[in-house]
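Assess this today:

___
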Amino acid sequence: MPLFLMVWLVVSFLTLGALAVIRPNRHVTWLVIIILLTAFAVWVSLPDNPGIHIDTNGDGEYEINKEIAIRQGLDLAGGVKVLLEADLPEGETPPPGAMNEVRRIVEARIDSLGALEPVIQLQGERRLIVELPGYEDPESAVELIKNTALLEFVELPAPLPPGTPIKTDYGQTEETDTGAEGTGEEDNGPVYHTVMTGEILQSADVTISSQFGTPVVAFTLTPEGSELFGEYTSNHVGDILGIVLDGVVISSPRISSAITGGQGVIEGDFDLETATRLATQLRYGALPIPLRVDSTSTVGPTLGQVSVQQSIRAGMIGVAVVLLFMLIYYRLPGVAAALALIIFALINFAIYKLVPVTMTLPAITGFLISVGTAVDGNILIFERMKEELRAGKGVMAAVKAGFERAFPSIRDSNLSTIIICAVLYAFGTSFGAGAVRGFAVTLALGLVVNLFTAIIVTRTFLHFIMLPISEEALAQRRWVMGL
């Protein structure tokens, strides 16, 4: 953590403590909290923020590394979009829960790519949509996603060259006379016996062979798998045990001795990328049903840059027009509203970076709508204040009454919209409309922040702005209150 940030935090807490003891005025306390919160939000919102790096004990055991950056979605950052479909005979539907399991496995595989907030959602009963923002290699992404990754340990009568496609009896329902000699015959070749599958694997990682200096996949077996593997290799010393992935031979080593340690390696014609992909697929398991690619599209970064620029420009113009309106129409209270709106935007940007929230065009739309709700809240408060002033109340009494009368309306409208956002977030993916989740998140966050800025920030600023105004001065200059 930067030194200045640590000093800032210490000074902040000491200041708050001193204020609570020396001058227990809630408006002063809130003003200090607002200033500190705004300073932190500005620091988080910096374009080149260094992030937060903490090592509590010096040896890295409790190390925290938090990169603070805006995450962009597919429509802003570009990337890859893949539409997959269950590769089943026409008219056959996947078993219950199979596509949800496919989604879970694909999501785990994609997490290993480091893609920024991927979108993975089911579409109907047979389709899966995958969006990878910022990912630039569609071919490797498709290979990682769609491959079934069914690993089999197969009895072979003799070594087979790597890359040889074979048929095995795994999953067959009809009885077939198969074995190490491959005596079971089909129209297009022998059927070999599967001894074990990748279900016995506990983990798989890429390592470098100490003998050849090439990438290999080192695996660890489950306790049950280790026992089964050790028993089989003890009884078949000298036999060939083929390692087959998705029906293709990777290698066919000869068992030289019993393997009882529960560990082993898969050697093949791997480079680092293919070995990493294989390890990832084995680590997260085989897909319960095969997938085929219906379509693949690549969104270029140019579209994303244009969208970002246009969205930022539109947002800045909109906020500027709103601020100008508040200043012209409400005058002095408009100054407090303008400051509160700026703080509202800074806090939202900081939250988007810290959560982090993936920014898409719908997400930006949600933020802009939340700006409108923030302005609506201030307008409601100021109109209530003007009513109290016209009724003859003093300045501070009018401020207090305006907030008390407006708060129930602001609270209820914001909470009802937050409930709608929760529904959109919960059901957006189920109905194949995952894009609305970003909209729901930014709008809901904006509404929550609005409850703070409209009630606390605006009220605190109004208190200090109107504190020096006497009743006589207000009577002579009613225009400063928009009257």
User: Anything to note?
Assistant: Residues 1-11, 13-24, 60-65, 173-181 have pLDDT under 50 and may be disordered.
